[in-house]
């Protein structure tokens, strides 16, 4: 006897019942992708038991009815976002798809804006730290292809990110061990994003590896050049400068350099400064900014590729994709100076 299910049964509930992924249920429901015949039969039987019907959006995905990909950031200014968006758009154009870009600016109505955007595109890439896990789960459960960009890995949600923790550990140990600096200060807010959190953890890890004791609390600040300038200007007014400022990104680091010079401090002779990203301007301040190069454009391109695979159901998408980063030594840490 067929079991006519509850209204509102989700892909997640069906997947849990028969022991497959949400993506597999979505592919069978939409009639796309490579799924074994046995799995397909079990999924279809569960769909019939629960009288599950894919949403209008879900049916449209099989045909790419919207002809567009979506990407969501907290804001759109700065070289990091422009590089990632540029790579994402390049792959979308190659697939003959448009791109809808949403900058939430962390507005209170962000969740609603993202859900509305998801209804107008074939798949959505969301920057980590913007949405709650509950909102992401609801998007997934209604069958929307979703990729987390620069987020923390979560079961059932494909994620793509760059390697942050080990890279920041190497950078910090370069200052602690190779240069023998003490009194390092982390400039950035670990709670502002998954990337910043990984970098702070790498900073702490370096202190443990160097047996240097616990580090000072971070100077919690945003990720723009003006944020870096204001935070370091106040830090210098409060007392003697640290020996090195280890900044969460290059824009903050450049602001820190400008604040130090404005107060008459030499970089790196008096205070060393490092960043993260290797934006084009990183080669300009003082004798060049020591930083970590992350493949920003490649991150955007690979995000679009993974999202297209998820939309088309062309094979399983691994849960966590990590792109490598590279330590770049220049003069701002003290290397190459007398």
From TrEMBL:
<keyword id="KW-0805">Transcription regulation</keyword>
<dbReference type="Pfam" id="PF00356">
    <property type="entry name" value="LacI"/>
</dbReference>
<dbReference type="InterPro" id="IPR046335">
    <property type="entry name" value="LacI/GalR-like_sensor"/>
</dbReference>
<dbReference type="InterPro" id="IPR000843">
    <property type="entry name" value="HTH_LacI"/>
</dbReference>
<keyword id="KW-0804">Transcription</keyword>
<dbReference type="InterPro" id="IPR010982">
    <property type="entry name" value="Lambda_DNA-bd_dom_sf"/>
</dbReference>
<dbReference type="GO" id="GO:0003677">
    <property type="term" value="F:DNA binding"/>
</dbReference>
<dbReference type="Pfam" id="PF13377">
    <property type="entry name" value="Peripla_BP_3"/>
</dbReference>
<feature type="domain" description="HTH lacI-type">
    <location>
        <begin position="9"/>
        <end position="63"/>
    </location>
</feature>
<dbReference type="InterPro" id="IPR028082">
    <property type="entry name" value="Peripla_BP_I"/>
</dbReference>
<keyword id="KW-0238">DNA-binding</keyword>
<protein>
    <submittedName>
        <fullName>LacI family DNA-binding transcriptional regulator</fullName>
    </submittedName>
</protein>
């Amino acid at each position: 006897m067929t079991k006519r299910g509850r209204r509102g049964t989700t892909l997640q509930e069906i997947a849990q019942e028969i022991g497959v992924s949400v993506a597999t249920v979505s592919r069978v429901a939409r009639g796309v992708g490579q799924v074994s015949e046995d799995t397909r039969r079990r999924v279809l039987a569960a769909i019939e038991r629960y009288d599950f019907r894919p949403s209008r959006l879900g049916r449209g995905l099989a045909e790419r009815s919207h002809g567009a990909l979506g990407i969501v950031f907290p804001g759109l200014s700065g070289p990091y976002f422009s590089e990632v968006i540029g790579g994402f758009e390049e792959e979308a154009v190659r697939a003959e798809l448009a791109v809808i870009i949403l900058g939430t600016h962390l507005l209170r109505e962000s969740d609603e804006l993202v859900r509305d955007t998801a209804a107008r595109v074939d798949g959505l890439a969301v920057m980590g730290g913007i949405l709650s896990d509950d909102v992401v789960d609801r998007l997934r459960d209604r069958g929307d292809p979703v990729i987390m960009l620069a987020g923390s890995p979560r079961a059932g949600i494909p994620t793509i990110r760059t390697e942050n923790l080990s890279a920041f550990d190497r950078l910090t140990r370069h200052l602690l061990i190779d240069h023998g600096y003490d009194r390092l200060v982390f400039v950035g807010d670990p709670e502002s994003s998954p990337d910043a959190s990984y970098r702070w953890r790498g900073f702490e890890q370096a202190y443990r590896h160097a047996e240097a004791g616990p580090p000072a609390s971070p100077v919690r600040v945003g990720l723009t050049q003006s944020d870096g300038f204001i935070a370091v200007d106040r830090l210098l007014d409060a007392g003697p400068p640290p020996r090195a400022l280890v900044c969460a990104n290059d824009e903050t680091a450049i602001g820190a350099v400008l604040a130090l010079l404005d107060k008459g401090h030499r970089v790196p002779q008096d205070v060393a400064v490092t960043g993260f990203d290797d934006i084009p301007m990183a080669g300009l301040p003082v004798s060049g900014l020591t930083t970590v190069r992350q493949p920003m454009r490649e991150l955007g391109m690979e995000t679009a590729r993974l999202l297209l695979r998820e939309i088309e159901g062309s094979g399983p998408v691994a849960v966590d994709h990590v792109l490598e980063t590279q330590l770049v030594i220049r003069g701002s840490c003290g290397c190459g100076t007398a």
